[in-house]
Amino acid sequence: MTNRFWRAGVGALLAGSLFAACSSSSSSTPPDTTTGERVTATRTSTDDPGQWTVMVYMAADNNLEGAALADLAEMGQTTGTDFVVLLDRAPGYASADVLGLGDFTDTVLLHVADGQAEVLQTPGELNMGQASVLEQFVSFGLQNYRNDKNGLVIWDHGGSWRGAAWDETDGDDNLGLDEMSTSVQAGLRDAGVDRLDLVGFDACLMATYEVASAVAPSADYLVASEEVEPGNGWDWSALSTPAGGSTTQELGEAVIQGFTDQSQQNKESSTTLSLVDLTQLTELDAAVSKLALAMTDEARAEIGRIGYSRNQAIGFGKDPNPENDYFSVDLGALAAGLQSLTGLEDAAGDLRDAVDSVVVSHLDGPVASAATGLAAYFPPASDLHKAAYDQLTVAPSWAHLLTTYYEGGDSVSAANLPTFVDEDRYIEEDHTQTSTDGLYMETDVQAGTGGNIVEARLFWGQVSGENPDLVTWFGELNADVAGDTVSGGYNWRYLTITDGTTPTYAYASINYDANGDADKIIVPIRFQRGGQQATGNLTLSLDGESIIAETFYLRTGEGIAAVTPEVGDTFVPLMKQENLSDFSVNWVPGSGGVLDARTELLEYTYGLMPAASPIIVGLGIDDVAGNQDLVFTGTATPAELG
Fold first, then answer.
1. Mean pLDDT over all residues of the chain?
2. Where are the domains of the chain?
3. Pairing status of strand 196-202 against strand 219-224
4. How far, in Å, CA of 399 to CA of 416, rounded?
5. HSE-up of 103 (CA within 13 Å, CB side)?
6. Taking the alpha carbons of 500, 501, 503, 507 in that order, is the dihedral positive or negative?
């Protein structure tokens, strides 16, 4: 058995930087939240109990260094499980001494068991976004610490099909899905091991069909989250195993329960975590292929309704700026919506059954209660589809389905694409109703074209006094589509945020659950720590009119993770500014200036506009080919509001 870990040639890399920490808290005192109901399927293949070694690829050379140290401390609290940890730290973010290791800024290889940490190697600074590093880590762990049951967890920012493990010191290099797939398989071959029992991701947005396809050749089970994870991530102390060992399903469900309990304690309500049986993935592959075939057949006439069903399904990593949206859509919820469409009933039913079969167990917070455990990349139109996705070799059946959908959308004739009947884009008074409760408006698209609307939204804002074509929108919510009629209502309110000094406008993208209740507000932001900036959002989780969680999510490379604001951190809410002459959009800072980011200082007001305020309210649609149209009405808030 060799103790050599690193092959020659893997050395120090160039420096880079972003921001720190990862966790979240609420400045309010919310009511207790309840977790979603656990859904568990029966596995037919053998899963015997055994003692565990879990290899943890801890890519913390970025703004998550502080969270890595907290999770490493939790590993020190476990019993019965051996951890082999490759920990890459970052300069300038955290200086804590965990498990007696002291402070360092490069990479160490550790063995952690029953509260004790042993330094096995000090290879110097490593690029955790390099596939050969992951390969060697897997090989070393299995050659030196192989057990009855063996798992690998990749810990860091996650980016769905974009991969994980971003390394700031090497220019935000990361592991793509194809790199992960080939490097883990190569590490297994090096160690003479056929498969792992489990692969997990303590990272955001990784419970996807694409990720499952990437790791299926290497493992029996996957544990990952559909949604952006809260800052606490997994509760690693939950990975303790009894004297007789644990089955993979038992350990996976312990991870899910620990994660959910810890998130509930921190008042996080949109959490998701799934245990996926990768040995059943061929059934899901077949169902996806069947659905793609059905979409080329008699269902082609329903192509717009497919897009609308996609929009109605629960999504993850959402952002009002489409450039920042991950377009990750829950597969089970999508399939349920497609079952009502002519020509897709059987194929969509098979897809839903396949998702239920492959997802062994999942537990979701109340804001994510519609989740079914596995998502997939699905932008609503071809112009929003990232070309890099087409370079992946994993999940080819889903890539084919997307191509089929986009070809169907692009083939719709111009005469069947929806545009509003109001050619001047102005909604007349007979199509609006106003009261002190709000403004209701409805209008039609060209006859027979409403079926090709894939998304409809209502916006509210104000027109620039200098340029009548320039609108600053204050927020958005989903509008309704019924046949050729689009409608929606606005309640005269707008969002402001203050840190105790000057209030500033904030864009409120309001999300509603299946019951029609607002459950989340997403606020686009620009965040600053020291001299570094990053874009992201401030997500406010709701229970009725109470904010039960407030979390900052920031981007590193193309990955995303939660951060905990520290003293000196600031942010600026971003507003959507649109030129109505060409629909061009810029995201600009809200009035009121820079805010302190510490959540205990922040106060939110979703209050009434002042009486007699000039206001513009618009209805916007996206069609199946990616085109947009907008109509609006100009009005003033009622004098009675004062």
1. 88
2. 50-279
3. parallel
4. 26
5. 8
6. negative
